[in-house]
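Good morning C.,

I know you're traveling, so I'll keep this short. The sequence:
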Amino acid sequence: MKIFGIAVCGMALALGAPVLVFGQAPARGQLRAGAAKVDITPRPDQLAMATDSIRDRLFVRAIVVDDGRTCAALVNIDGGARDAVVNPAIAKSSASTGCPGQNYIISGTHSHSASTGGLGGAGFPNTDTIIAAIVSAVDTAKSRLAPARVGYGTAQVDLNVNRDLYNSRQEWRQGPNPQGSSDKTLAVVEFVGDDDVPIGVYTNYAMHPINFYMSGVISADFPGEAARYIEELFDNKTVAVFSQGASGDQNPRLGYTQSFNVRANQLDQRQTVAPPQPRPEERSSRGFNPAAAGASRQAVPPEKMDAYKKAIARTGEYVVMLGQMLATTAVRVMREDITPVDTALIWAGQEGFSCPGRVRLDADNPSRENVFPGYKDGPDVNIKVGLLRIGDINFVTVNGEIYSQIGIKLKNQAPANKTVVVTLANGAANSGYIYSDDAYSHLTFQVIGSRLKPGCAEGKIINTALGLMHKSGE
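The tokens, ready to paste straight into the viewer:
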């Protein structure tokens, strides 16, 4: 594994040693920050098929913050952050750095192309590689602690779209629904050094990185493009972390069009202005089955290779655009809208709760969407909500994919206006998607596949987060 990060001027810091300024320890609340990233890209010989490829590098990125009293770690993985990774990584890293376990946020970009085994499948990078990378990145970031200022800002970026669509054929499908709820907020938290160069940049936006899904391409998708743009802009003296907002029902706006969808284009490059025909899997009432599609995926035949490469290139152009739009907007916010401060206290807490669960009656042969499968009572669903507060900035974490309405309501009810909702963080609830109360009637794959009974998760997530915010101010 190759370690990247920020060079610290002056004497190198020993891991965990206090930083002395004119013989005195940092004042309580005086911020220091450090950042690093570790490459976790699989090797070419680990690819699943001969025609698969590595488009860009995958990383674990970490920002460590210290207030002179305690420390916290903001960690991001290109891919997922499930319990099997998060729990041992926090235990090992906390023991090494001394940062309390509850002060960690480990989240995934949720790139659907960040594993050779596909989304959720066994592949590379494997669990051991990711755990080791998290520990290494946080250790290195902590060793680079330097005086810092922190600031928060937001902008509205219209790149995402609600994907719960009741279409013209009176079917519930996954498709762009501009009338559906969608939070367009890009949140930016910067940690700036004495030289006015960012040590770390933490961004948050709600949009699924699905552009290379099941295409045979290994890629960090648009989160990787956004991070790379920011890092290169500042001569790789900064580390840029991307986290998912309330993206359970949010996709890239053009993610389904014939112009940008790899699956739609790799076998048919004909372009017309006629209304597009539904893909074969959408003509069935049962809908698309990703497990079956993944299991049946084969190498691209030679006669289709030119069309496949053309589709990959076109999709890549769209991914670059998405990443650069987010990155350039984040930099504008940093330069024009944020006034960072050099003192901030760290507070963290976590609480779990349960909601009634359900089991589908068609579990042996599940439909994808546009059906009501029927349910029976199932085991309770356990959800974890956390709060990491740095000064007046509140990072709310949920270990699941929540719908946009939940995130919007949480931010609207929060007593603090600087609230960042980080999903897919610190493990994975046994829920599937966490749909909002008003989406219960949607027969989309997210809703019918969820293990949650309606009427519980939304209210408990919001109330738990608000309770933690009030507790942090006591």
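Safe travels,
E.
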